[in-house]
Amino acid sequence: MPAQTPAITPARPQPSDLAAAGKPRRRSTASRRNRAAIWFLAPACLMTAVYVLYPIFYTIYLSFFNWDGMMKPEFIGLANYVEMLHAPTFHVALKNNLTWLLLFLLAPPAGLIAALYLNQKVRGIRLIKALFFAPFVLSGVVVGLIFSWFYDPTFGLLTLLLGHGVPVLGDPRYVTFGIIFAALWPQTAYCMILFLTGLTSINADQVEAARMEGAKGWSMLRYVILPQLRSTTFMAFVVTIIGALRSFDLISVMSSGGPFESSTVLAYYTYDQAIKYYRQGYSAAIAVTLFAIMLIYIVYQLRRLLRDER
Questions:
Q1: Is the peptide bond before 259 cis (omega within 30 degrees of 0)?
Q2: What is the pTM of this model?
Q3: Domain range spanning residue 230?
């Protein structure tokens, strides 16, 4: 009989061989993903660097120079900041910004009340939503013109309601409050939209459970609705405070900082010094001060938000 040859069984690949074979593939896949992420992020990073970071650093650099926008800049150190701190207009603008900040905080509660009213299914609610939403789509120039006509002491609606003319925009005592009242109209609509969006993500099961336990009215709002709207409330207050600090368009349209610079704020003061008086370095110092105030607040709120999340 012929001798039988033993069957040859193929050698099984060892786990180390499989791992060695899989590593290059995983690495190539990860590297491709990293390259794709870099290419997707590159345009946004480039635009942020050119249009956000570079202007910020250049403004800080320019604040140490005396420059009219045409001649060669002259380095003067902290002289712009010293002059700014001693300027009466700067203190008026800072006080007006504080007034804007305090009164503008009425917008989030008013927006929440409007959102709670509109977040119901009744006949004609879509038309009412459109009327509440209208101020948000109007530009600041249009809002400023509307309220300028409203305040006009000769033919304005306020004159018809009071029976006599009140020069709201011509009196240093009233002008800032009149402009803030006009700015609250679109800002309340914006906060209303934020809260309406937040109300759509509320857990309905928690609301039903609270109703079964007898919660309603203020207790329902405080213990069930508002805790679920924490992130929305945070965003509404942050956007409102930033809007109050950078207020410019309504002041430019309604009063131009007057009368006697009584309604100017830091943002308009920056524009006034740069465009009217060609003081680019001094204007940059005011802008840096305003940026520092906003940055301090934003960092504080972000740290608070991160601490709450932890």
A1: yes
A2: 0.82
A3: 81-309
